[in-house]
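Lecture 7, part B: from sequences to assemblies.

Below are the input chains for today's worked example.
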Amino acid sequence: MTSINTQKFDRELKKGGAEMLVLSLIEARPRHGYEIRKLIEARSDGVLKFNAASLYPLLYRLEKRGWIVGTWVEKAGERRRRFYKLTRDGKKALASQRTIWQSFVAAINRVTGLENA
Amino acid sequence: MPDWKPEIRARLAGLRLAPAREYAIVEELAQDLDDCYADWIARGAGETEAHRRTLAELSEGEWLARQLRRVERQTMPDPIPPGGSRRNNMIMDLWQDLRYGARMLRNNPGFTLIALLTLALGIGANTAIFSVVDRVLIRALPVDRPEQLVNLRGYDDRGGEDTSFSHQLYTDYRDQNDVFTSLLAFGETPLNLSDGGQPERVMGVLVSGNFFDALGVTPALGRTFLPDEYATPGTHPVAVISHGLWRRRFGADPALLGRTITLNTHSFTLIGVAPAEFQGLRRGMSPDVYAPVQMIAQAWPGRGPDTLQSRGFSWMNVMGRLKPGVSRARAEAAMSALSTRIEKNHPGYGWPKIALGDGRQGETGIVSEWRTPLHLLLGMVALVLLIACVNIAGLLLARAQARGREMAVRLAVGASRARLMRQMLAESLLLGGLGGALGLWLAVWLNSLLARYGPPADSGAAPLSAASLDGRVLLFTLALSLLTALLFGLVPAWQASRPDLTMGLRESAGAAGIARARMRGALVAGQLALSLVVLVCAGLCLRSLEKLQRIDAGFQAAGVLVMGVNLSLSGYTSEQGQRFFQTLLERTAALPGAESSSLGRVVPLDNNGMRLTVNIEGYTPPDNKPLNLDLNLVGPRYCETLKLPLLAGRDFTVADNAAAAPVVIINQAAARAYWPGQNPLGKYLSLAAPGGGKPKSVEIVGITGDSRYRSLTESHRPGMLMPVWQHYQPDLSLYIRAAGDAAPMMDAARRVLRELDANLPVTRVRTLADQRHNSLYSRRVTALLLASFGGLALLLAALGVYGVMAWTTAQRTREIGVRMALGAQHTHVLALIMRQAAWLLAAGLALGSAGAWAAGRAIKGFLYEVSAADPLTFLVVAALLCGVALLACWAPARRALRVDPVTALRHE
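Predicted structure of the full complex, as structure tokens:
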């Protein structure tokens, strides 16, 4: 069982969640920024929402860290868009974040489940 | 669809992102907002509503910037400017301009290569010549405050003058003047140096004891002379050696001081080493040993200590350091008064007047033969550089055309013209700097070449000293590079920075193109003119060299070996010496391949000579002036050995010795001048005896043809030969006439000398033909360099012509196509191209001829029997220039002829 200290816990909650959302959304295939925004909103049934001013700095941060890479792609009949895809480092990071997240959720569940039981 | 970009940019403004990065972010965000807006509209929101909700995506105020600031690196410097004027940081801007320029040069390797090569050649030649001029003619002596130094020259009203003074006169001047802080004297004498190793002949200088102190020269090692080492004759055998000798012969041994060396046959103690940069006071000579003049009896065989008191033997140069506040004019007046007083007490010895020359450069008599040629060369390389500048300006103009669009865009987006010009000039500066660096490298190579092909060390020809490239030369090159860059960069920058905006944007040749074509045409015509000037000067010098080489010396130089044999340094009495020379003559004449051998005091064409005052019975010289005849003291069979034609009488024989009746052989000029219409044979000359004794009568026994004595260019003067056995000299030259080539006899002759006296240093072994050859050294080097520069000028001009013709022909491709489509013949098209070339050429030749005529007149003094307006030279050079220019047109013309009308019409 992975132990999580309090500070890390706190940080991951705030930031890691958002990063993980973005990383998982482009895991299967490259997507552009607006698409990522819409998908987060749609899949969370409007609970989670990113505005542009928050998403793009996040994307650039991930890109700078080398987890994702953005390329301008021009498709016939469409305007040029910047598509982001996961790098190998990004895949590793996503896997580790998922583990942390699952431990976190499990821990929460254990805590809250005890109360309910 | 609303434009989101201004909104986004406003939010990014504080970040100072690199322009490309900012552009990418704005682009991506704007797209997102477009999508977002489209979504809202699709969901049925009104435009205002959609706009408001979309903008909300950017959040309020600083949010976006704050988020981005954590991620994006900020770049402080301005983008490479297409001409913005926001900031006024000159250095920063210059740096940017240079970086931009470097990129432009990198992107045009062909242009860069040609421009740099051209510049390197131009600047390199200038640097090389300048470094020589600086070393030979300009540079001050490496001594303390050289501007205070003056050279003394005595003169009288009858045209007599001399820079040599007797030691006694020097001491009088030194002790009685009140205008100099110090007065020094020096005189050279050859020394035979041995220190156990191979004996070596070196140049020595006998100096006054205050020599180094007066000059403010501190030795690199040890000390210089002390006052008491200069007080009494012959008591202090000490010597200071040159830095060169110290390194060459003693391996820069720091423990050398106190060691004893043998000079001639006397021991001297080494007390110091002169600094490396100090080469003595006589330009063109670098002495190796300095000794106090009080040691003259030891250093100069045949001279006793009484030489120091003699007033009749003038052999020292005198230099003084003026007292502060004393002007040269005042010092001259004071010295003349002093000199007159001394001359009154010792009539006939000394000078009534003293002139003081600028002593900053020391004694420059030897190198004065280089003055005119070096100035000529300097002028010519400057012209070559100018031609190179024109070439590069032409290339830049062509490039300005190609960059018209770039310039137009920059001007259109608001760059100021000054800013564009600065940018263009920065590129020129970069080219100039790089070209200068390459040129410096080339100059080093050229200098080493000049040094390698210098005259043999003791040939008597003044060398173009192998100048090293030091700070002064570097500074010169730097200044020259900057000046050059301005010269070739200014006009193109001016032109390029004012393209017609709309024309430039449409990228087409037009009015601006025509102006540029005119400008380039004018430049090329100017270039042709300059080349003509350089080529004509080179041609005139070559012609004059050719004439000089064909001068009949009056004797046959080919096939004669000459070597200096000086017994005076080896302790022979005159009887022993005479016996030695007699044996030497017999042995060398008997060598296989030798026809005859003889001796002579003065070697002809060595810029050297003796004169003697004679009286001729029945001849009164005009104005009763003493009659001075050129004199040489020669051995038996002299005329035979040199093949000096005997017109009447006989050659000297072994029998013409001290016991026999004194005889003389005169030349034709003397016979004509003093015995016109008579036969001089059997007549007598009387010689003034040294010391004022009874005049000696000598009988004329032969008449030779006229021959050149001191130099080839000297006119024939009355002269005479006397037998050396009747006037013994220990320092003679041996001549051996070989049946064939003289050079192979060198070893045999040396062997004979070694057998006779193994310790005798043999000097200046050469053939008489070499002697003749070397006497034209400065002329030959000048002509050769000029010819090379002329060739360079021609090449550069050809490149210029080619460049402008290729360019204009390319500009006219469409026109040519149209003409050919309309049925023009090849000859018509050719005529079209050639007419333009002919105009350039005609203008260039006309302008150049005027310039060359003026240049020719300026160098008239340097020419020998060639008129400054020599028609042959002008014709040949003009023809050469025409030929090369037409050749340069050939390729562009052929290209024009191959134009396919259809392709040409599609051109542009």
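Note for the exam: Chain B touches chain A through 20 residues (CB under 8 Å). Keep this in mind when comparing with the next example.
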